[in-house]
Amino acid sequence: MFHSRARGSASKGSAVYPGSFDPITNGHLDIIRRARELFGSVTIAVSNNSVKNPSFSLNERQSLIIRSLRERRLTQGVRVEVFDGLLTDYMRRRGASVVIRGLRFISDFESELQMALMNRRLNPAMDTVYLMPDEKHIYLSSSLVKEIARLGKNPKAFAPACVAKALMTL
Ligand code: ADP
To answer: Confidence class of residue 12 from pLDDT cuts 50, 70 and 90?
Structure first.
């Protein structure tokens, strides 16, 4: 979708940032910016199967990401794709070896370590790189932002305007 030539990639293929993005928040955008800076380009891979009852459909989540990237002028070197099934298979199909994940609290660490090690077992060519967001985003999650909107407050301080608007009309 959005793609420009990598400025110099530190790895084989583009770095892949997978997640449910239900919806994208300022925390995700912070990680995308950092990953692009490190790897030259980044592919956001929206998972079709990571959440049981998503608030937004796969198409809506993808479209909100694209609109958010435009809003924040972050389209250069950033591609958005959706995937089904195992991340390890998707990485293999793309010939990519680096997975990006965000790390907020120590509580993220346990499940992330487990997932990274299982992924590496399933696809030994793969490694996971963890990036920490700016501390002003550290307490943000898609579910908390949704909860704020559900309780009647516009969450525009925590997500791009297009996302805040979509949440207020859910
Ligand atoms: P998943 O269901 O795969 O965890 P999410 O969309 O919730 O999907 O998260 C995708 C990735 O983004 C995860 O690595 C998560 O830790 C990271 N992330 C989410 N919110 C933030 C944030 N506020 N700061 C940094 N990383 C974040």
So the answer is: low
Q: Which two tokens stand for residue 88?
A: 């390890």
Atom 21 (ligand 1) nearest CA:
27
- 55: alpha, beta or left? (left if phi > 0; alpha if psi -120 to 50): alpha
DSSP per residue, 64-82:
HHHHHHHHTT--TTEEEEE
- Active-site annotation holds for 111: no
CA of 137 to the centre of ligand 1 (A): 11
CA 88: distance to chain centroid? 16
pLDDT digits (tens, 9 = 90+) for 127-136: 999 999 999 9
For residue 40, which amino acid is it?
A: G
Q: Which amino acid is at 95?
A: G
pLDDT, tens digit (0-9, with 9 covering 90-100), for 76-94 = 999 999 999 999 999 999 9
From the DSSP assignment, how many helices (H) and strands (E) are in the chain?
6, 5
The verdict on whether 28 is a catalytic residue reads: yes
